Amino acid sequence: MENKKELRTWLNNMKLAHPLVIAGPCSAETEAQVLKIAHQLKDTDATVLRAGIWKPRTRPGNFEGVGALGLKWLQKAKEETGMLTTTEVANANHVDLALKHDVDILWIGARTTVSPFIVQEIADALNGTDKVVLIKNPVNPDLALWLGAVERFYEAGVKNLGVIHRGFSAYEKNTYRNNPEWQIPIDLQTRFPDLPLILDPSHIAGRRDLIFDLCQTALDLNYDGLMVETHYDPDNAWSDAAQQITPAALDKMTVDLRIRVEEG
Ligand code: PEP
Ligand code: MN
């Protein structure tokens, strides 16, 4: 991918490409898995490695993440590959641990954004930080709840913010695991035009064959980045197996995607 529009401030300060590509597994599973994926990604357009270590699962009995142990694996992946790292934080304790282990970018999950007290607790724990914080939309199609979370972080003095569009749940299932409802992030951008907007096609799609088209739509809409779940053995991933793609598929996809050229 090439740079075709002015970079947003924190992307620029961190010397990250535009569009930003974040990739990595839904969940960190083992140290070897994290390192193998990081090495497979390091020569692609992905500059940030994602891996969930605290996984809020909808129903009990599913794999809920390796926990703080995974922070060391992310640190090692960063040392070995030079990629930046990102993980989900879902309470103030997670924030403290992630900051101690030098995670570069923190993201707030869709099940956390729905909960103002938890959002406030996390924002307070990050008060005045220079870290980048990416706020996923809430699971339900509620623009005000998403805006409210953004406002709580801004008010806590967190300047380097961005948002992640991961789709919205609906009782009636259709093509998508979570409906894109493209108008909602567009409306959020009219309120906060400087906020980088990143697409998470993986949780919208729920299946890998839809990911390319979702990414293309986002780039046509001038999104600032993509966060794509990536695993060397997607079918055997410990979570979200149906929607992950291989690092090789990601590499091909970013070459094939058409990047919107800014006029003037
Ligand atoms: C994830 O990114 O793996 C995740 C749990 O996402 P979401 O909060 O969007 O469901
Ligand atoms: Mn996932």
Automatic annotation (TrEMBL):
Biological-process GO terms, alphabetical: chorismate metabolic process
The entry's keywords: Transferase
EC number: 5.4.99.5
Keyword Secreted in record: no
Domain of life, per lineage: Bacteria
GO MF: chorismate mutase activity; transferase activity
UniProt entry tagged with the keyword Protein biosynthesis: no
Protein name in the entry: chorismate mutase
Lineage: Bacteria, Pseudomonadati, Bacteroidota, Flavobacteriia, Flavobacteriales
